[in-house]
Amino acid sequence: MLPRASLAAVLACSALIARAQTADPNLQNLLGALTNGTEVTMVTPLTSGMLQVTSFNPGNRMSAIDAMAALNRARAQLQALGELQPTAEEIARMLAGGPIDLPGGRIQAVGVLPASGQAAAIRSQIVAGGTPLPPGASYTAGASAAAGGTAPPSARELALQQLAGIGIINPSEDQIRTAMTGGTLTTVNGVVQLPGVLAR
Length: 200
Fold this sequence. Notes:
This protein has 200 residues and is an alpha+beta fold. 42% of the residues lie in helices and 21% in strands.
């Protein structure tokens, strides 16, 4: 009976891996990082025209079954928090832990991998479209943007657009938070009062 259950699990994971490979190249790269134990760079186009470049390092290599279980656990946690269609970047953040901006507000995720005793690291930046990408990073121009592409931009993306409009192209998390909630920012042109995109 045990061999049948193992075979069923392997077949189920194979089907999910095949789906991940065709559905989203970033998800494919994330799955590859988990199974190979190597760092991967994911590029997510934003509706603002900017690109979010995220590097994720799982720390250790995982079996395909464990990698799919970790991905599914991270996705389920994000869905439970209100992110119905999480991006690969959001799943990577939930895997590694750290701040995640969700429809209900910002959370500080413990991380699926750190909670299971596995060190993982993630870092991210927003860059202008056309910026040279790190080796190994891939991006298809015209690919659908994060948050569904045609869906209204998220609060984070609206904040990034607002910051780009005042000349802050690569904002810090604090600057993004200020643009989301409202407040003042000091720029090279002086102090700017932002109304906050969440207050609209």
